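Moderator note: this is an archived Q&A kept for reference. The question asked for a predicted structure of one protein chain; the sequence and the answer are reproduced below.
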Amino acid sequence: MHNPRWRTLLGATLLAAPLLVTTPAHAADAVLDQQVAVPAYFLPSGDTAGFWTQMNTAASKPGVLVANVANGPGDEVKPAYTSALSAAHAAGIKVIGYVDTGYFGTTGLGTRLGSASADDWRAQVQSDVNNWYRFYGSSIDGIFFDQAQNTCGPTAGSQAYANLYREATAYVKKYHPGATTIANPGIAPAACYQDTADILVTFEGPYSAYDVATRSAPYQPQAWEAAYDPQRIWHLVYDVPDATALAKVIARSKANNAGYVYVTDDVLPNPWDRLPPYQAGQVTAAKGSGGTTPATPAKPTASQVKATGLRLSWTSAAYPGVVGYDIYQGSVKIGTEANFTPSATVFDVAGLSPATAYTFTVKARDKAGKVSAASQALTVTTAAASASAPTVPGTPVVSDVGPTSVKLTWAAATDADSGDYVAFYDVYRNGVRELSLPGTLTGVTLGGLTPNTSYGFTVRARDTTDRASAQTATVSATTTNPAPITNPTAAVSNGNAVYTATFNLPYTQRHVFIDTDANYQTGWSVNQIGAEFMIENNTLFQKTGASTDWSWSQVPGVSPLVSTDNGRYQWSVPLSVLTGSGNVQKVVFHGTDGSRNDYLPAVTLTTS
């Protein structure tokens, strides 16, 4: 059976509107050097495999690609992705793994286990980060945080939401030095987000909302973006019809100070499921020109030196010749920073080890992408760890055991060096660290497990200097093994077809395939029916193209999902929309997480 392709979008939910400002001009002799960054939401096998090969060729090669297996890394290694990501990384493309943050539940979105708790989202995000590196290793160069918030916090003066993304970035960088993080609010976020990730997607939308010629009030960046390092801004523009429109968008994105750009003629519901025909043209158009190689920056100085971090600062260059700096820890580029003229430029380094010597250098970069020689190196030794380790937490207690998750709780540890304050709890699964949680938490629901499988869990406490306690005694748990999908029904109510089933596993995609003519030879062949329509989560699609092609068109104006309750899903679709011959439907329920595909036998519905 040909598996359905993922229709995952980048963060398309708009939570606020950007403030319109005018972008100031930069040096007249320099044209901004951009990198094309591709959301590569197409399979590296079958009829889309050629796009991956195309990306590795010099003419079409992007600087960055975002890989997305199943709204994340999925639950197991995919050999096709292993080959494709390795080849892209070897070709010099920065490969970034997709992780859904669901706004950390702040808008009510639930995790794969159905929780809107920020703590449960944190656990899922960390597990997805782990799996990208666990499955694809050195081919992964960083993490893309989709569905990112854009407001600082729930109330004026709060930065609670922004802090969640700072924490997520810190997690990636602590365990994967040199990794790049990208956050996607889909629109320009508040200025408090400037330090939450290395790159921010500040525009994602159609050509009609971006280009001057197609709109009286086109998109313009917020004030803070105009003076920001362009290598920390990414714009995504879809439904750009041809090469002429492409040129307009590239010119506009350069004026908007976006150092990363992606333009495609593809359209909703998924404008990221193929490369555009002008891919090579946009790679060429994105290149910069002019400019002058900046002078070598002064040797940085260090302050606020702690056991696990420090602050670097150096004299800023004269604006606007230098737009940003690249900061290196040894030979590894650890970040970029905008030019802070007239103040000194500063960069905070985190994720270091106690009592360890590190060497740092800085390179200046102009608008056209010309980079200076490295500054004189600064060597700094971090502070020692604290005098004593935290106490060992209580042995975790297991509860709420499900097919893919367990809940763990433990008694708090104490730390005499920190006034009894424990900074972190590290949770281990079968001896491998799985989560690093704030010290304010003494429990977590751990997902991503395999049904009918035994696991051992331990916890340790850690302070701000990374001194850790011993691990607790191991507690064991065996996940349950329910039938994947149960209790399917199909009925007619008030002129609607109503479909209901219980999904007992946390699928990424839940499908209802609907054969409206009871003819398995027409429509999409699935489990002995021919589906003319498909519900995917909360979207209705109608089959298009040849019956053997996975080609679907979204049916506008229909949001079929009615309710969810403890795994019980109900969808309702007007019969008038479900066109077909006869009065008998065949309905197949399907769940998939990218690794497994579970189908039920067809249910028959008589519509009249």
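Archived answer notes: The longest strand covers residues 357-366.
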